[in-house]
Description:
The complex is a heterodimer of chains A (548) and B (535).
Chain A: H1 2-14, E1 20-23, H2 25-28, E2 52-55, E3 64-67, H3 73-78, E4 87-91, E5 97-99, H4 101-104, E6 111-118, E7 127-141, E8 147-149, H5 151-154, E9 167-169, E10 178-181, E11 197-199, E12 202-204, E13 218-222, E14 228-230, E15 244-251, E16 260-266, E17 271-275, E18 281-283, H6 285-288, E19 304-307, E20 316-319, E21 328-332, E22 338-340, H7 342-345, E23 356-362, E24 371-376, E25 397-403, E26 406-409, E27 424-430, E28 439-444, E29 450-455, H8 457-460, E30 462-469, E31 481-486, E32 489-494, E33 509-514, E34 518-524, E35 530-537, E36 540-545
Parallel strand pairs in A: 30-36
Antiparallel strand pairs in A: 1-29, 2-3, 3-4, 4-5, 6-7, 7-8, 9-10, 10-13, 11-12, 13-14, 15-16, 16-17, 17-18, 19-20, 20-21, 21-22, 23-24, 24-25, 25-26, 27-28, 28-29, 30-33, 31-32, 31-34, 34-35
Chain B: H1 2-16, H2 22-34, H3 38-51, H4 56-68, H5 72-85, H6 90-102, H7 106-118, H8 126-136, H9 140-153, H10 158-171, H11 174-188, H12 192-206, H13 210-221, H14 228-240, H15 244-257, H16 262-274, H17 278-291, H18 296-308, H19 312-325, H20 330-342, H21 346-359, H22 364-376, H23 380-393, H24 398-410, H25 414-427, H26 432-444, H27 448-458, H28 465-478, H29 482-495, H30 500-512, H31 516-534
Helix pairs in contact in B: 1-2, 2-3, 2-4, 3-4, 4-5, 5-6, 6-7, 7-8, 8-9, 9-10, 10-11, 12-13, 12-14, 14-15, 14-16, 15-16, 16-17, 16-18, 17-18, 18-19, 18-20, 19-20, 20-21, 20-22, 21-22, 22-23, 22-24, 23-24, 24-25, 24-26, 25-26, 26-27, 26-28, 27-28, 28-29, 28-30, 29-30, 30-31
Amino acid sequence: xxxxxxxxxxxxxxxxxxxxxxxxxxxxxxxxxxxxxxxxxxxxxxxxxxxxxxxxxxxxxxxxxxxxxxxxxxxxxxxxxxxxxxxxxxxxxxxxxxxxxxxxxxxxxxxxxxxxxxxxxxxxxxxxxxxxxxxxxxxxxxxxxxxxxxxxxxxxxxxxxxxxxxxxxxxxxxxxxxxxxxxxxxxxxxxxxxxxxxxxxxxxxxxxxxxxxxxxxxxxxxxxxxxxxxxxxxxxxxxxxxxxxxxxxxxxxxxxxxxxxxxxxxxxxxxxxxxxxxxxxxxxxxxxxxxxxxxxxxxxxxxxxxxxxxxxxxxxxxxxxxxxxxxxxxxxxxxxxxxxxxxxxxxxxxxxxxxxxxxxxxxxxxxxxxxxxxxxxxxxxxxxxxxxxxxxxxxxxxxxxxxxxxxxxxxxxxxxxxxxxxxxxxxxxxxxxxxxxxxxxxxxxxxxxxxxxxxxxxxxxxxxxxxxxxxxxxxxxxxxxxxxxxxxxxxxxxxxxxxxxxxxxxxxxxxxxxxxxxxxxxxxxxxxxxxxxxxxxxxxxxxxxxxx
Amino acid sequence: xxxxxxxxxxxxxxxxxxxxxxxxxxxxxxxxxxxxxxxxxxxxxxxxxxxxxxxxxxxxxxxxxxxxxxxxxxxxxxxxxxxxxxxxxxxxxxxxxxxxxxxxxxxxxxxxxxxxxxxxxxxxxxxxxxxxxxxxxxxxxxxxxxxxxxxxxxxxxxxxxxxxxxxxxxxxxxxxxxxxxxxxxxxxxxxxxxxxxxxxxxxxxxxxxxxxxxxxxxxxxxxxxxxxxxxxxxxxxxxxxxxxxxxxxxxxxxxxxxxxxxxxxxxxxxxxxxxxxxxxxxxxxxxxxxxxxxxxxxxxxxxxxxxxxxxxxxxxxxxxxxxxxxxxxxxxxxxxxxxxxxxxxxxxxxxxxxxxxxxxxxxxxxxxxxxxxxxxxxxxxxxxxxxxxxxxxxxxxxxxxxxxxxxxxxxxxxxxxxxxxxxxxxxxxxxxxxxxxxxxxxxxxxxxxxxxxxxxxxxxxxxxxxxxxxxxxxxxxxxxxxxxxxxxxxxxxxxxxxxxxxxxxxxxxxxxxxxxxxxxxxxxxxxxxxxxxxx
Lengths: 548, 535
């Protein structure tokens, strides 16, 4: 353990360049503006932004990027032709991207919010699910660089409600990925009420979500034939209280082998559905300690990150929340009993001024410890008036894991504070340039996305990238738990599809190894099968296919 | 008395030695002063001053004899020397003030008189002189308070009431003027015997002879046709001598004889407040406000009584009126701001308190109220800034330290709050709120074992009992002391059965104890309670 803690000092001693992030979006060709209503933000519909998903849609081994775009109330109300679309950017492999949206046939429709990439039909190609204000879209990847809209056939449109951050997971472990789609709130776009409310003494217009009715969540079971069945009620996850749900994440929190479901709710208690293993769930948010913050308060949960930051084999949770409140790190004490450790861990106080959205654990410096990234940005442009110290555009934040459950804000050191502040929303990570360190994309309000290239992360430590391919389990290996042991440090991670905020991360698993040059790997597949690999060489991408 | 004693001693010494001492000379000079032979006293005092140049007894008397001879520059030098050698030297200040007035320098006179009156020193007619100085300086509104103080010292003095009436006339306060002139007239017409008795009572009280004072006072009070104004004057004298119960009796009798006598109702209310009977004070003060709504003092007194009785809403109109009448009165402003805060109108309190705290630098109370008001309007950054100011200006005041500590905690800066809470506990050991605050800081730092001790220390505070119990339970859960935590929570439910937070933690404890049914039951109750409170 001491070795790991000493590593950063060792890097300095060796004179290695520090790990930093640089926005290369313009150079990479990510020049399309993401919109979300008008800049004045008169309605709650306009303030939540949209997501970003990484997927290798063309199977060339390089991760491509899908960015969801919003719309304007005017377009909705007057049924105007779309002036904006979602964007699929093909990764050219040379640090640049090409917009292939039209060619691929994935422009989206109406007002988009979230996306999640997963191979729902187990054909080896990443498909795309896009959530909307209104009916969702399931784009099936034909495998030839184009997609087809199979929403109707699949039965996952979800009706004319506001959908948010979806997630795929094989809750019944039948080898087919099921789909959870949270509903946010019931917004009357035809005749919206222009509200005014007060936030910390500042008059603002985009009031909500309190004062609105929530929208229902849905769980769709994958029938394995290209269709889905709504099993929300049958599975016991009916959102009776109509909470304002933002983001769902499938993860096995109690290590019983069955994926559970966490749902981050805005201004309402979060849901934690434990999978009973019989096709049903039990909501245990309150007794599990994940519904409320340490002070017993509802959180304005926006983004959800899952990861085992303290390497104890239990998956922890991190949640971004509203400004003037800290983001919450829930430590999984075992068996899905959570404790709010935001302050002792060091992520409480530095996050208070910010309003957070995208969030994920990632080992940006390859030291074997999961760090934490948060994308920030206020919902109210009016806060810029100077009455309070909060601002609409806010810096991005990165917390480095110092070990022993402690984090330190390194946003300045990694040069995130050097970037112009934005009102960020969705975001996700991927090693898009396949250079052995994790890069980040952030979707911003009324702006071009930020593509943050990680520089020197691959020099800071060795790494392993694992691509899982299920055979009995779902093809993408979603839900597989991977244990990597190298030089005395054991790490755990799972393959997930959907998370952060309205987004999905690199579907491949990335492990920092520090100075270790090889590692032992153990994969526990959703099928229950365990597979071990010994002395795997570092600094490579490895395909692990589930053995029959 | 000391002078005569000195004289005696001096006389004895003269018999033994031909060279007179300074004290002997003082004695001789004093005897001459008593006979108004100031010119004769002067050389003796000058000689004494040569013998003992730093003797303030000599310098003061020398100043006095110069003053009486209208040799003002020489007098000034002597009094200033006394002031320099033995501050605060209120008597010398008084004469310096008088000299300033004689030299037509009222602004300067105010600087001499005001500290005497502010310190509550009854040096000759310094209050009346201060009032005159304010008037001469063109600040009639400021003259009211010292003139009223002068009246309180000699409440039988119809001339002072007359001066007050003139003052109110000058200020355009016709109703107040009419009331003052009325009192003046009634006192002039009062039984001469009453005035003599009042003077006697005043003397007896000054000499601490309360028995004689009561006996003489009874000669006024027990008469069936007792003059209400004389009764009021008598009550004022008793009140000034801290014989509050006697004062109340006099004011009650005065009010009984004339219910429309403003001075009776007003003074009765004040005396009842002074006696700690704020509830009873409300009636007479309300009556006083009705009789004379233009009276700032009556409005302030009623407002204060209402605030003391936590009747904040009814305090506001009178305090607003008083604040309009006297926007320089920081006490009124503070009371009004306090009433705004307690009635859920912190936004109104903020500008008021900002203006007060800019002017008032010596009192921590408005600053602390401003912290509270800013926090209530959710301007936490500003609240913290003001709290830090309060802390730095009043470092020995636990409340100021506490405000800063609590505000730091409120904005999530627990690490910085921790030493400040510790400082509070040094200044006010055992203060439950500080124990709770420190416990929270320790819990946020993950130091649960230490947090537990401080939460336990905060359990006894009525305002902290629930939060301390919750914090204690949470730290015990973190320490895996589940049964202990359960006990703490279940005990809490006996006092706070409808507290959702307690049940929330209890649900967590039951779940971890492997009692999912009990956990679910508590979770359901939480849901119901929260739904109920949301409605």
